[in-house]
């Protein structure tokens, strides 16, 4: 992953984009998920910040019904895509993206 000349990393952390583990990187231009090398053939997921329409907390549910705790963020795009990122310090990510 290469950054453009004016691109700066704001946040970086280990994360999951189900079912893949990897690294989540937020820059002033993009949100990037870089999968771990063990995920052969998996390519990075890149979302332009200008394409992000919504960022909400991701909940961990018991029996798919009862929300137990917040464990990450859900990012929605102009293209109608939705990405569930499991990441610690989710509130920091939410604040930076929103």
Write up what this structure looks like.
The structure is a single chain. The protein is mostly beta strands. The protein has a single domain (9-97), classed as PH-domain like. It is built from one helix and seven strands; from the N terminus they run βββββββα. It has one helix at residues 90-97; strands at residues 9-17, 20-27, 30-35, 45-48, 52-62, 66-77, 82-87. A seven-stranded antiparallel β-sheet has the order 4-3-2-1-7-6-5, covered by helices on one side. A hairpin with a 4-residue loop joins strand 6 and strand 7. The longest helix is centred in the C-terminal third of the chain and has 8 residues, at 90-97. It is globular, with a radius of gyration of 13 Å. The model has no long low-confidence stretch (mean pLDDT 90).
Write the layout of secondary structure elements.
Layout: E1 9-17, E2 20-27, E3 30-35, E4 45-48, E5 52-62, E6 66-77, E7 82-87, H1 90-97
Antiparallel strand pairs: 1-2, 1-7, 2-3, 3-4, 5-6, 6-7
């Amino acid at each position: 992953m290469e950054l453009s000349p004016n691109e700066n990393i704001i946040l970086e952390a280990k994360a999951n984009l189900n079912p893949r583990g990897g690294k989540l990187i937020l820059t002033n231009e993009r949100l990037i998920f870089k999968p771990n090398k063990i995920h052969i053939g998996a390519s990075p997921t890149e979302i332009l910040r200008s394409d992000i329409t919504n960022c909400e907390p991701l909940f961990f549910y018991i029996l798919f019904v009862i929300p137990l705790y917040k464990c990450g963020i859900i990012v929605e795009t102009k293209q109608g895509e939705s990405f569930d990122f499991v990441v610690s310090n989710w509130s920091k990510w939410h604040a930076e993206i929103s």
